[in-house]
Design goal:
It is a single chain. This protein has 357 residues and is an alpha+beta fold. Among the domains are: 79 residues; 141 residues, Rieske Iron-sulfur Protein. 35% of the residues lie in helices and 13% in strands. The chain is built from 9 helices and 13 strands. It has a 5-stranded antiparallel β-sheet. Strands 7-8-9-10 form a 4-stranded antiparallel β-sheet, with no helix packed on it. β1 and β2 form a beta hairpin. α3 runs antiparallel to α4. The longest helix is centred in the N-terminal third of the chain and has 31 residues. It is elongated. It starts with 11 loop residues before the first helix and ends in a 16-residue tail after the last strand. The N terminus is likely disordered.
Amino acid sequence: MSSQDIPEENLPAERAADEHAHAHGDVSVAHEKDPFADPGLPPHEHRIQDIDERAAKRSERTVALLFTLSMLSTVGFIASFVTIPADRIVYIFPLGHISGLNFALGMTLGLALFCIGAGAVHWARTLMSDEEMTDERHAIAAEPEVKAKVLADFKQGAKESALGRRKLIRNTMFGALTLFPLSGIVLLRDLGPLPEDKLRHTLWSKGKLLVNMNTNEPLRPSDVAVGSLTFAKPEGLEEEDHEFQTEIAKAALMIVRLQPENIKDKRELEWSHEGIVAYSKICTHVGCPISLYEQQTHHVLCPCHQSTFDLADGARVIFGPAGHALPQLRIGVNDEGYLEAHGDFEEPVGPSFWERG
C-alpha cells in the first residue's frame, strides 16, 4: 500500500504533530465545520536576550556600534567632500580607474545608511518586545452619538474662531500659509546656477568652421564623399576643455553628402551646400549619439532604441520612439573654401524637455 492510500490522520508525521500539540497545550487548528474559527496564537517563545541580561547587553553594544559607525561614516562623507579634489582619479580593483571623490562619497554614504538600517533591525529583533497579542476587530464607523458630537464640536469651534466674520484675519492667514513654502524654493536656488536658456543654444555661430572629429582639421566640401558619414564639432572646442563633454553633447554634427536631386525637403536643400547636409548627431528620443547610416535609403539609425530618421527628407522620424526630426544646421563655404556654419540651430537639440517651444 502506498502512502497516498493511508488516511492523513494515520500518517506518522500527522500523529506526531497531534501528540506534540496536545502535550504542550497548543491550540488546535480550526474545526472542519467552522473553517474561519480563530485558531489562536502559539505559545510565546522567549529569546535569549529576554532571559539573559548579558546577551541583552551584547545586543545593546552591537546596536550602539552600528550607530557609531554610521556617525563616523557621515563625518567621513563630509570630510571626503571637502578634502578630495573633484578631478582626482584612483585605481580600485576590480573597478579600475574611477573618480576618487565619487568612490569615497558613495562608500561613506552607503555605509552610513546601511549601519542605521542594520542597527534598527538588530534592535527590533533582539531587544524590542516581540510578543504577539490579539484584539477583537471593532467597527470602522463611529457610533451615531460620536458622529453627532464631533460635528457639533466642529461647528462650535468654527463659530468661536470667528473665521466667518473676521475676513481680514482669514485672508491674511491664508496668504501667510500660501507664501511660506516659497522660502523653501528660495533655498533651492543655492543648489547651483540657473539653467536659463542653455539648452536652447550650442557653440555653433555664424562663421564657425566645421572640424572633423577624427582628424581635428577643418572640413572642405571635397573631404565629404557621396554616401559617407562624417562627424564634426565646432571650431575651438578641444577635448582638453573642462566643458567639452557638456558642449559636444549639444553641438555634435553628422555630415552627409547626398545628390541634390535626392533631397526632398526644400528647406534642407537651401540649408545645404552642394548636397552636403549637417544634422545634429543627438537623437531626439533620449539623447543617444546616432552612428548608423544606410547609404541606399539615406536613413540614420539610433542604436539605443532604433529611432530612424530620413536625412533626404528633413531628417523626419520614420520609425521608433523619437518625437521630432533632427535639427539641421545651416552651412556654407567661406572665402578659404572651408565649410562653416551660418548660425546656431534654430531649435533645441536632443530630447524634448518641458519648456521646449
